[in-house]
Amino acid sequence: MRKFIFVLGALVFVNVLIGHGDVLADADDLVLSVGVREEYLDNIFFTQDDTVDDFITTLSVGIDARKRTERLNAGLKGLFDGVIYQDNDDLNNLDQFYGGYVNYLVSERLSVVGEASLKNDSRADRDVVDTGLILGTNVRKTQRYNGKVGFQLTEVSNVLVGYTFRKEDYESRISDDYDAHSALAQWEHDLQHWLVGTRGNVTFGYDRYNYRFSRTDNYSLTLGLEKELSELYSFYIDLGGRYSEYDFFDDDDDDYDDELNVNSDGMGGVLKSGLKYKGEYSNMDVYILHDIAPASGRGRTVQRTSFIGSWRYRITEKISSGLKGGYYLNQGDISDDPLDEHTIRVVPRLIYQLANNMKITASYSYTWIDQKHIDIDKSRNDLFIRFTWDHTFFD
Known about the structure:
single chain; mainly beta; 66% strand
């Protein structure tokens, strides 16, 4: 019965969007996508003992509308994922994503960017690719809004200011809701006169993370370079420092004017650096990140260091292989929390392009987590095969 409801909901969603042709008639592209994923997980909840395995079917339906003119680049996207567990059907959920963006050139010098998204998800591993942390199967609703304004000062120099708001709400109180406010100001300059194919930047950032019992304010300043090493390689690095303040509240309410229980501050480094390669048959992207970052559902921020990489190789015109992976270190930040969690992910895959709009992907994922602060390590194996099809209406 639940499978039927999931599929019906996805079909209704697509019918509503396509049926409103007057709304989408001016789109340059209108892409409908459908996917089916069959998967086996040997440790759904990432436990050390008493592991639970299951077969999972994910039915996906999405639509993506894009509009491009000389000054405008905009798009709307919707995606439904019906996640169906064979044995643990209490975990079944209809994951949803709705998003939109607008990039508008007001004048030759002034541009504005706006983005908004709403997301409903439930998988325990939904954050592991970005953070290395396991969240559990608590249903989460996420809102994210982002705005940027760019201004070209001269032919070789420009400035950018931006603001982002993110809010996470959980169905169960076992995970902590939070909201985050982030602002940045960046000056970028072309260093062509001194270094061919190089741009430099100075960036100031501010982040505030509000949780039920805590608040973190983080200030950062970085210097950066982007360099085209050759036609195939490019390199970038942003290096600097941060100052953070951590406040803990004794009262279970959202009044941040209450008397503080704990107040601490500290300084640290900020690093974002990567190397990209784009060849005729293969592509590579490796990078490292280090900064204060939110830990979803845990009511706190962490100091996170991530080494992440991806590689793809085209074997034939229709067959390609790939490898993704990463090492993540999440540690206690200025709050003096003993957290010390290490995560390793390795994901090889094989892709067969049946046609221009159809492909089959087979993949295996291994994830290992070592929670040193509580002396627990656990692992999980994930094997899946996925078929995807898409159709462009206004191509």
